[in-house]
């Protein structure tokens, strides 16, 4: 389970290389406007202009792992250098591919 939570944290804090290595081809991500829905290569391309988070905490986390599929659900509290705190309810779905987990879907809903 720690492997999945570590991969999830890296999606928030790491850069493009992690996304390229750990995102399934054809993955779907849903973010609040103005970003919206990103699929496949657009996810990686969208990172080029996006500032990275400097800190993230996962609260109220739960996970389900079954038959090579995993779903993480959690409340995120993140911040960037000099930016306002960001809070969201998130879900991420992974599938086991060979010897590693690949992200197939991620969704964020802003939260107070």
From TrEMBL:
InterPro entries: DUF4440, NTF2-like_dom_sf. It holds the Pfam family DUF4440. Residues 17-101 form the DUF4440 domain. This is Nuclear transport factor 2 family protein. It comes from Tropicimonas omnivorans.
């Amino acid at each position: 389970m720690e492997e999945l939570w570590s991969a999830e944290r890296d999606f928030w804090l790491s850069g493009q290389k992690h996304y390229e290595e750990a995102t399934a081809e054809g993955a779907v991500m849903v973010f609040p406007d103005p970003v919206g829905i990103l699929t496949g290569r657009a996810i990686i391309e969208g990172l080029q202009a996006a500032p990275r988070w400097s800190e993230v905490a996962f609260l109220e986390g739960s996970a389900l792992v079954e038959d090579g599929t995993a779903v993480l659900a959690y409340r995120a509290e993140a911040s960037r250098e000099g930016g306002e705190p960001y809070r969201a309810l998130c879900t991420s779905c992974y599938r086991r591919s060979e010897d590693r987990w690949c992200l197939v879907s991620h969704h964020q809903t802003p939260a107070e």
